[in-house]
C-alpha cells in the first residue's frame, strides 16, 4: 500500500479564524475540505516542509510552526501519516495559488464542512483549543 507523509497546517489568523482549502475534484478525497499542507520531501523537517508548502499553495510566509498532533490513517488505497502543526506567526492573507478555493472560518463553523476521514481527530482536538 502506498504510504504518504504529509505536513499539515492549522493556520490561525489574528481574528482566531482557521484557513481551509477545498481539494480539487480529481485528487484523492477530492471535493472535501482540508487544512493546507503537503508532502514532506526527503531531508526536510516537518516545519520546513510546511513552510515550503504553505508558500507554494496559499502564498503565506510562515515564520514558525508548533507541533500539534500526528495521525496515522489507512484509506483503502493508501496510508497517510499526517504531521499537524499550528501556524500562528505568518505574513500574508492567503490565496489559492493552485486554483483551489480557500476560506477563513471560525472554529465553531468547522463542523459544517466535509473533511476527509483522517482529519476527524484534528477537528476534535481543535474543539479543545481556546479560540
TrEMBL record:
Signal peptide boundaries: none
Gene from which the chain derives: mutT
Name of the protein this chain belongs to: 8-oxo-dGTP diphosphatase
Enzyme class: hydrolase
EC annotation from Swiss-Prot or TrEMBL: 3.6.1.55
InterPro entries: Mutator_MutT, MutT-like, MutY_C, Nudix_hydrolase, NUDIX_hydrolase-like_dom_sf, NUDIX_hydrolase_CS, NUDIX_hydrolase_dom
Residue stretches making up the Nudix hydrolase domain: 3-128
Keywords on record: DNA damage, DNA repair, DNA replication, Hydrolase, Magnesium, Metal-binding, Mutator protein
Matching Pfam families: NUDIX_4
Cofactor: Mg(2+)
Top-level lineage group: Bacteria
Amino acid at each position: 500500500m502506498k504510504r504518504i507523509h504529509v505536513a499539515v497546517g492549522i493556520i490561525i489568523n489574528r481574528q482566531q479564524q482557521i484557513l481551509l482549502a477545498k481539494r480539487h475534484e480529481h485528487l484523492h478525497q477530492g471535493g472535501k475540505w482540508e487544512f493546507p499542507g503537503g508532502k514532506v520531501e526527503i531531508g526536510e523537517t516537518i516545519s520546513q516542509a510546511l513552510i515550503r508548502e504553505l508558500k507554494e499553495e496559499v502564498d503565506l510566509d510562515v515564520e514558525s510552526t508548533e507541533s500539534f498532533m500526528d495521525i496515522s490513517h489507512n484509506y483503502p488505497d493508501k496510508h497517510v501519516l499526517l504531521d499537524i502543526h499550528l501556524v500562528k506567526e505568518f505574513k500574508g492573507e492567503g490565496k489559492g495559488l493552485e486554483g483551489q478555493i480557500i476560506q477563513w472560518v471560525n472554529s465553531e463553523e468547522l463542523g459544517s464542512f466535509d473533511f476527509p476521514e483522517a482529519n476527524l481527530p484534528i477537528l476534535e482536538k481543535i474543539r479543545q483549543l481556546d479560540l
